[in-house]
Amino acid sequence: MSIRRQERVTELIHQEISKKIPLLKDPGLGFITILAVRLSADFNVAKVYYSVLGTQDEQRRTQEALERAKGVIRGHLRSLENLKDAPDLLFVQDHSAEEAQRVLNVLSQLEKERLENPPENLPEDPKDDAQA
Question: Are 65 and 21 in contact (CB under 8 A)?
Fold first, then answer.
């Protein structure tokens, strides 16, 4: 298959899953965002990367809800005329947003500590050193 076709199908799957998930009636679904879809070269498996806001328990319930919804989502994908057969779906939680937030929190804390406890023995104005 052509790479261009694979890209188009991947984008179609991404869009359709993103539209379908908010319509699901499962109370276990949390605040979820579909980040990316990676389709295998043979079009048989689609890894769906997502992030979800909430506690560990809410994240676990969302993962379980997505597993329960696989059949419904695949059925929806099968109904699309551009797709001959819907791929198996593998939902993978992406923790990069949480990790980025932790890094920002650490940097904010370091900045706060730096402002509260300025280093000793530094010149008041860096321009004073350049002129000396």
Answer: no
Nearest to 26 by CA among 72, 76, 74: 72
pTM of the model: 0.72
CB of 35 within 8 A of CB of 94? Answer: yes
H or E element at residue 33: strand 31-39
pLDDT of residue 130: 56
Structure confidence by residue, pLDDT tens digits, 84-111:
788 999 999 988 877 787 888 899 888 8
Dihedral angle sign, alpha carbons of residues 80, 82, 84, 88: negative
Q: Which of 99, 98, 78 is nearest to 87 (CA)?
A: 78
Q: What's the distance, CA 73 to chain centroid? A: 18
